């Protein structure tokens, strides 16, 4: 059974273009855009965390570039703003490259990339279709890395910028029946750490956002609990404003799973099995 993973900003399936629209077909909404404003490219902006993040940045006067699979939902997110809509399926061949080209052509700069697009799959790994394994890894991990690779040179050349990656509690400590999602998010966390070290001194920062539970609501799993898109959007915005590498700041309890796993793997497995 497929559904959005913990903290995912995946756009629900719909009519999906094969690639980003050409710059001449970019649709603009609301007040005229001003190129002197800071520019944020937000993927997964059709719904969920991505849409909430776009609205939060718009409140602060940012120029927005919105990416997702569903044009109609993107236009709803963009309503009342000067956002540019760039619909695309990032998992399609060449999707990240074409999106980056369209975005840079439209505004000439990207100050912040919020890579929020993702998909989850819940169920026994032995029953997971091979096509779904490929799809989760392609969108949650591969497409994100390729998009960062396309956007990063312009940030380094400008001597400023920030890459924001959407992690998950599942990437900190694997979640039963979310094995591939957990693997993808763990890979994204390692990528964020490695890239952050490479970019020291360039003026470009890397933020890993790991949503933490703050409110109540329905969810199929006992742990990890989901968090509201609005809360995650607030954390993302504050991390950019404060040039923070983590959002929210890592509490002591969140470091415990990885430390426990490293020091006492057997005990860690027993605790994990008792959570379900």
Automatic annotation (TrEMBL):
Keywords: Oxidoreductase
Domain Ketoreductase: 38-221
Chain segments carrying region Disordered: 1-34
Biased amino acid composition, Basic and acidic residues: 25-34
Protein's UniProt keywords contain Flavoprotein: no
Database matches in InterPro entries: KR_dom, NAD(P)-bd_dom_sf, SDR_fam
Record carries keyword Isomerase: no
Database matches in Gene3D superfamilies: NAD(P)-binding Rossmann-like Domain
One Pfam family hit: adh_short
Family, similarity comment: Belongs to the short-chain dehydrogenases/reductases (SDR) family.
Protein name: SDR family NAD(P)-dependent oxidoreductase
Source organism of this protein record: Streptomyces koelreuteriae
């Amino acid at each position: 059974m497929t559904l959005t993973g913990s903290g995912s900003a995946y756009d629900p399936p719909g009519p999906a273009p094969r690639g980003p629209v050409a710059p001449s077909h970019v649709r603009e909404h609301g007040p005229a855009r001003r190129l002197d404003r800071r520019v944020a490219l937000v993927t997964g902006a059709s719904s969920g965390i991505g849409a909430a993040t776009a609205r939060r940045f718009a409140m602060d006067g940012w120029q927005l570039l919105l990416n997702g699979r569903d044009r109609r939902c993107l236009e709803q997110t963009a309503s009342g703003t000067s956002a540019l809509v760039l619909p695309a399926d990032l998992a399609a061949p060449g999707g990240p490259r074409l999106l980056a080209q369209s975005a840079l052509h439209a505004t000439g700069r990207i100050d912040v990339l919020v890579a929020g697009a993702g998909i989850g799959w819940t169920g026994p790994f032995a029953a997971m279709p091979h096509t779904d394994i490929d799809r989760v890894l392609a969108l949650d991990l591969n497409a994100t890395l390729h998009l960062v690779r396309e956007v990063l040179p312009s940030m380094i050349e400008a001597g400023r910028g920030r890459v924001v990656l959407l992690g998950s509690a599942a990437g900190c400590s694997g979640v039963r029946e979310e094995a591939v999602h957990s693997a993808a998010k763990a890979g994204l966390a390692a990528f964020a750490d490695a890239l952050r070290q490479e970019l020291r001194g360039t003026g470009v920062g890397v933020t890993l956002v790991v949503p933490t539970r703050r409110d109540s609501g329905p969810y199929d799993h006992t742990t990890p609990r989901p968090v509201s898109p609005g809360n995650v959007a607030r954390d993302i915005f504050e991390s950019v404003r404060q040039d923070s590498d983590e959002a929210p700041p890592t509490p002591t309890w969140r470091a415990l799973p990885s430390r426990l796993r490293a020091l006492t793997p057997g005990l860690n497995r027993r605790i994990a099995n008792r959570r379900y």
